[in-house]
Amino acid sequence: MANVILERSFDPPLTDERMGEMSGRLSPCLDRSGVQWIRSHLSRDRRRLICQFEASDAGVVREALRQARLDFERVWSGEIVEP
User: Fold this and answer.
1) pLDDT, tens only, 30-76
2) Is the residue at 25 inside a domain?
3) Which of 8, 40, 73, 81 has the highest CB neighbour number within 10 Å of its CB?
4) Could you give the strand order of the β-sheet that contains 74-78, starting from the edge strand earlier in sequence?
5) Cα–Cα distance list, 12 to 1, 15, 39, 50, 73 (Å)
């Protein structure tokens, strides 16, 4: 499985309500695609979101986002580098 990163910006800032609505639309699409959500990081100003997934490749995550009708700036595969 690949480590896949999603990058997205929001203007206006992301609300809890909008985040819940997005998650509700995306979760079934991730499940059907065999993608596992690992974690998300939301900036303090709520304008930038970075999500980490485990998937066969970045294309599978992109397709799940399209099926959920969610925009994204970048989706890419990479290595985990830890100290």
Assistant:
1) 999 999 999 999 999 999 999 999 999 999 999 999 999 999 999 99
2) yes
3) 8
4) 36-42, 48-55, 2-9, 74-78
5) 34, 9, 22, 17, 16
Residue 69 CA: distances (Å) to CA of 22, 25, 64, 80, 83: 9, 8, 9, 28, 37
Can you give the pLDDT at residue 12?
97
Distance between terminal CA atoms of the chain? 21
pTM: 0.93
Q: Can you give the pLDDT at residue 67?
A: 97
Question: Which domain CATH number covers 10?
Answer: 3.30.70.3090
Question: For the chain, how many structural domains are there in total?
Answer: 1
Closest CA to 8 of 71, 57, 52, 79: 71
